[in-house]
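This follows on from our talk about sequence and fold. I would like you to pick a protein and set down its sequence and fold. Go ahead and set the record down below:
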Amino acid sequence: MTKGYLLEKLTWPQAREAFKETTVVVIPTGSNEQHGPHLPTGTDWIVAKELARRVSERSKVIVTPILPFGYAKYHTGFPGTMALQEETLQHALIDVCEDLLKYGTTHILFVNGHGGNHGPLKKAGEWLRERCVPASVASWWEMATIADPSYNMIGHADYIETAAMLAIDPALVDLQVAKNHKNRSLTPALQLDNLGVVRFKGHTLMINGVMTDVTVTGDMLEYGESAAENYDIEPTTASAEMGNKILNSLADYLAEFIEEFRKVKFPPVGEEGPAAELRKQKK
């Protein structure tokens, strides 16, 4: 039985009652971008939305509608990608949070499906902290090891994302064209670990790449982004069973986290710490 509430399905009187029942809100965020030749462009937001829904089955929270567009301008070399500028996403998140605070929201959990959103989510979190509202970000693909220690993310459109999509809607996955494709090299000596990191003589340096610099197929290996040691795991090894194991394990974990997170109370910024003590001494 559902414990929480999906805001998009409530009338406003029902929403009013829901905000009386709980002060914790889950905001799913994602992106609409290419995910190789075998996954839909909506993968990031589809998975985030579904995980948030599963959390609502386990915890008394309010889940907002998904924000399907993220910061992904570096993906727009592939048709179907639609993205926001970082500042636009940041302002959109803050605008949404500002309204939620009017209804009595005290704690916010962002269930995130896209790495490019981390910067704007951090800025939104800073805005919320200034208002004494605890906020946390759960980027689900980074947490797949909760389901199984061997489930380490190895790249964009990898077996982890493929498994999640198979669990949600296998009709959207084309395993016949699924394959790990080797990242492109800038020169014979400059190998791209991912779109932001280049390797040279055993060391890595940041680089200002975009997806088409790394891949012509829209998928990408991301060396060093997790504890993975085996980057040869093909997306065809994924299954709906694996995806459900990941999603359900994460939903269980986040439901437990929320119960502890509810207890967090932040004082006004500047009220505590050495600077505050110094001000008190001068009074």
